[in-house]
Amino acid sequence: MLASPDRGRLPDSSEWVYEYKYDGYRAIMQVAADGTLALTSRNGNDLTAEFAVLSGGLGDALGGQAAVLDGELVVLNEAGQPEFGLMQERRGQYQQGISVADSPVQYLVFDLLTLGGSSLLNTPYDQRRGRLDELDLPDPDRITVVPAFPHATLTALGITPHDLLSRAAAAGYEGLIAKRHDSRYHPGQRSPEWRKHPLIRTQEVIICGWRPGEGRRSGTLGALLLGAHDPVTGDLLYIGDVGTGFTDRALRDLHARLAPLERPTWPFTTAPPRENARHVHWVEPTLVGEVVYRQFTRTDHRLRHAAWRGLREDKAPTDVTAPQPTLGRRTGTPAPVEPGPVVAERVMVQVGERQLSLSNLDKELYPDGFSKGEVINYYSRIAPVLLPHLVGRPVTFIRYPNGVNGEAFFEKNVARHAPAWVRTVRLPSSGSRGNGDHIDYVLVEDLATLVWAANLAALELHVPQWTVDDNDATARRAPDRLVFDLDPGPGATIVECCRVAERLREILVADGLTPVAKTSGSKGMQLYAGIRAASATSPSAYAKTLAEQLAVQTPDLVVAKMAKNLRVGKVFIDWSQNNPAKTTIAPYSLRGRARPTVSTPVTWDEVHACREPNQLVFTADEVLHRVDRHGDLFAGLAEACDELPAR
Predict the structure, then answer these.
(1) Does residue 319 sit within a domain?
(2) DSSP letters of 510-572?
(3) What pLDDT score was predicted for residue 70?
(4) Is the pLDDT of residue 504 over 50?
(5) Which intervals of the chain are annotated as region Disordered (predicted)?
(6) pLDDT tens figures, 306-327
(7) What is the pLDDT of residues 163-177, one digit of tens each?
(8) Which among 63, 228, 501, 590 has the fewest CB atoms less than 10 Å away?
(9) If you average pLDDT over residues 369-394, what whole number do you get?
(10) Tens digit of pLDDT for each residue in 250-283?
């Protein structure tokens, strides 16, 4: 049985029960009287051998009765949350013959279809659920029943379904499934008695063609052209492209899978737009994948801001139908006239040992609809690689309480309403209002503080090149980072910054330093090196010398002076960012730009290959995929603290 989309309107009445929506493979589990089990995917594939780790012990739990269960196969990440990318990785390993016995896989059960040879399909949901809850499952780390929240229970607790949705967002789940108390189970049908409300929109798609890659993707895929069936006519429609979210392995595997499927023309019922059909290799529409997306447009019926999630070999092409255009403000269309559910202002969540009150999670902070809840989700997931670069460094926030199109403001002093557990450090003011003034900076060193800051719409995190002294929190240590901020002037882009970065790298390596690079998340990029400095001023002096040297050697490309009239078509090397009073954007920080772009560590191969500005522009979703693939590309910064040479 399948859930119908609720088109953005979560049911809110006493007729409904709510379950978390999980991120994995839907599967039916058949358990024989002797405990032998068989797993079958939605499209009939046998998954028993692939998930053999789940077998054992069920016969005793069921008292020797045969049963059929419905649920979701998931792989858990380090935070204990289902993560579809890990499921894809596990599947790839299994198909290559690599053991997956140690993979933290779970079967999350949400329905009981038969028990002891008796069908429960025509039994109301409440009764099926009651029988399911009575089962004594042997190993909850492998097979467990998902929690269910009746509307009456939520009311008794003083919360609404939208409060529960906010908790699902904070916990990293996909959304909610609403089920009617009296719903029967209708196999193979998409019924309005079950409704899904995803926090991130996912869509099954049919791969219909591919466009060759350029630059660092030369020789492989650049983008996939996607199709889906019209839900009324059954026609195969073109619904857009996807060019982000791929791992290097996925690109190689897809290229190999698509090569033998090539055909001379498009497979769509009607021709796709001419501009989208240029240089495309068309393929037979047999492979199904999944994407996440922000919007399905009303005018041209296209997916917007799509990112690849992986192949769905558990789905058949005939099952893939085009989504309905999204209702409400995410599409820029007027909201329905009838009153919708009221979004909860605040929700309490537990983050480690701390309890936080989060507010306005649905509030859109970026024009593409990226909400505060998604900002908090991003910072929660990126925390393992971000926090090590913030430890001991006073943070200056740039807050956007009304979104990036509203007024922004710098915040150095800790907010007056900050929880008492937020760690701060009092330092002398280094600004024009010095002369005895002090600033109480926040130290963002744990997940709870990071989530608290994200809830304030502190999109940007800026830090100095030095840390506070562990023994004397009012004292600054000597700088341990050297930074070159490469800022392209009018007529220049990050491509020119890359050429300057390569030249700087040669000099730094010759001087015994180990440079790493990252984008600014805006127009330019920065180079860093871990250093041991003799004084607070020596990094600025060293950086200024190198900047002026390159400006003399290549005056048509580099400028070392800040005057704007000198920077047209050139790259300004801002050496002054090494001044102890200055801060730069932290690695992995969001930026307050038109899209949720991120200051992203990059490899030197990527710097060398950059020939188009968009090659080094990464959004929050893409950065999470990059970290899954590469780990922390900035990790070496703390490990390589070399003596700063004299020049």
Answers:
(1) yes
(2) HTT--EEEEE-SSS-EEEEEEEE-SSSSHHHHHHHHHHHHHHHH-TTTEE-S--GGG-TTSEE
(3) 96
(4) yes
(5) 315-339
(6) 888 889 888 889 889 998 764 3
(7) 888 788 767 677 899
(8) 63
(9) 92
(10) 888 899 999 999 999 999 999 998 888 888 999 9
Instruction: Decide if 471 is inside a domain.
Output: no
CATH of the domain at 456: 3.90.920.10
Of 328, 358, 382, the residue at which a domain comes to its end is 328
Instruction: Tell which residue, 134, 292, 299, has the closest CA to residue 226.
Output: 292
Nearest alpha carbon to residue 398 among 463, 352, 346, 449: 463
- 3 state DSSP class of 14: coil
The predicted-structure confidence for 7-19, as pLDDT tens digits, reads as follows: 678 899 999 999 9
**What's the chain's Rg over C-alpha atoms?**
27
> Scanning the structure block, which residue is given the tokens 């899904």?
196
Cα 580 to Cα 394: distance, rounded to the nearest angstrom: 12
**What stretches of 88-235 adopt beta strand conformation (E)?**
105-115, 118-119, 143-145, 148-150, 175-180, 190-198, 201-212, 221-229
Name the one residue in this structure whose structure tokens are 């023994």: 471
Cβ-based neighbours of 181, under 8 Å, separated by 6 or more: 15, 16, 17, 124, 125, 126, 150
End-to-end CA distance of the chain: 72
Answer yes or no: do 11 and 135 share one domain: yes
Domain for residue 33, yes or no? yes
One domain, residues 234 and 121: no
pLDDT above 50: residue 300: yes
- DSSP 8-state class, residue 79: T
Q: Is 407 exposed, middle or buried (0-12, 13-18, 19+ CB in 10 A)?
A: exposed
Q: Which two tokens stand for residue 565?
A: 């009239």
Structure tokens, 210: 């591919």
Report the phi/psi class of residue 291: left, alpha or beta, with left for phi > 0 and alpha for psi in -120 to 50.
Answer: beta
- Report the CATH number that the domain containing residue 489 is assigned in CATH: 3.30.70.3300
Q: Tell me the pLDDT of the chain averaged across its residues.
A: 87
Cα(67)–Cα(119) distance, rounded to whole angstroms?
9
Same domain, yes or no: 247 and 184: no
Same structural domain, 146 and 275: no
Q: What is the CATH number of the domain that holds 72?
A: 3.30.470.30
> Is the domain of 169 the same as that of 73?
yes
